[in-house]
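Can't attach files on this board, so I'm pasting raw text. These are the components:
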Amino acid sequence: MITVSQVDICYRMPHDKIQSMKEYLVALLHGKLRYDFFYALHDVSFHVGRGEVLGILGDNGAGKSTLLKVIAGILKPTSGSVRIRGNVVPMLELGSGFDYDLTGRENIFLNGAILGYSEKFLQEKFREIVAFSELEAFLDVPVRNYSSGMVMRLAFSIASVVEPDVLIVDEILAVGDVPFQEKSYARMLELMHRGTTVLLVSHNLEQIQRLCDRVLWLKDGRVVCINKTKPVCDAYVKGKRP
Amino acid sequence: MNTERAQIHLPAFLTKYRFLIKQLVMRDFKTKYKRSVLGVLWSFLNPLLTMTIQYIVFSTLFRSDIPNFIIYLLSGIICYNFFAETAGLCLSSIVANAPLIHKVYLPKYIYPFSRALSSSINLLLSLLPLLLMMLLTRTPITPAILLLPFALLMLFLFSYGIGLLLATLMVFFRDTQFLWGVLSMLWMYLTPIFYPETIIPQAFLGVYKLNPLYHILRFVRTLLMSGISPPPRAYLYCLLLCTVPLLLGLWIFRGKQDRFILYI
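---
Top answer:
Structure tokens for the assembled complex are below.
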């Protein structure tokens, strides 16, 4: 389903602080432009099968979000390759496609289009999206007047209405108030049971243990290990490789 | 990734992303006039008001002896405004959509393309006042006007090409927006919008002949004011001078698009 092979993401950072065009040109002419290389991901390879739920663990800055972005096609790997079969729905930061001047109704269509839904599909699912978000009364209000919880609820409702082949989730199981959180959690479980392949980044170990079949542990851009959930989580807590 | 291929086959690209492009164009259009009282009327009013001011200036302060000056001026203003608007909108299209580019994979052509399209709607709307003025000035309307879409298409391709170049440059070099402000003014003066071609000094004629807008304007004015089709040569000039910037824009944009995300 998803095959990631030897992916590197390498950022080039200028070694010396160059502040102006003149300094840049001078440095360039003298051949003194030096760079530091920073590997956000280094030699990452793994395979995820159909319907599998893979958790991704790691400290801040380990490269979890970068990895999700590479898989979602947002970032291009410096080297290596990612192969995916089927359609991918990324839930990286909900509501990033919203236009705050447009109404909730208009944003459902705009955001749906951004996520790659067809017009027909959106019209069919429109009621369902609205019902799930519980925002019927505010559909024709510009989103700028929504509370942040309302924005998140609408965004989650749009993103979760499809049954994608691959779902990429970055810490979004904490949307809205407690009842809505439970509802969205139930929705995620439903998607997983229907055979959607899920990649899930979370700092919530309990959540990972409940949801995931396998877990990938990233550290400083490298894969520490990838294995069944229990041993990896235990090792992660102890901070030692299993 | 399978999505990359869509960019090469234009028809497939257009069907796949038609709905998204439609949504983005609608958004641009809706938000543009969202909080204004007159709303979409501005699309008609803007060229008319600009024309009125320039007409007063150039028919009283500076005497111009261009026959049918109203149509001459209005056609010039409409075409130039479209070019400036499209290029300006495309310029910021990548940088302004940074949040989206960071979160969802979409072919990046979509951003400048949808903006160029929404600007085209504006262009089409501003043709209505032009038609109105043609009727009022009793300019004969001949079948030659049916060739206008060719000129407008060329104008679109050229403006989109420049827009792609500017959008790419803007990502790496934010000074582009200020430079473009100056450059577009220079470009306006290098295009015979409100002055007759006859006052162009011989020495500068070469520069003018390289300006696609010069050729497009000549083309449009021949259609509207003389009511005949321009000579075949004119088609060739337009085609050549508009597709070269377009191809250049596409090529550079394509080469750099994977690096955009690192700079926005």
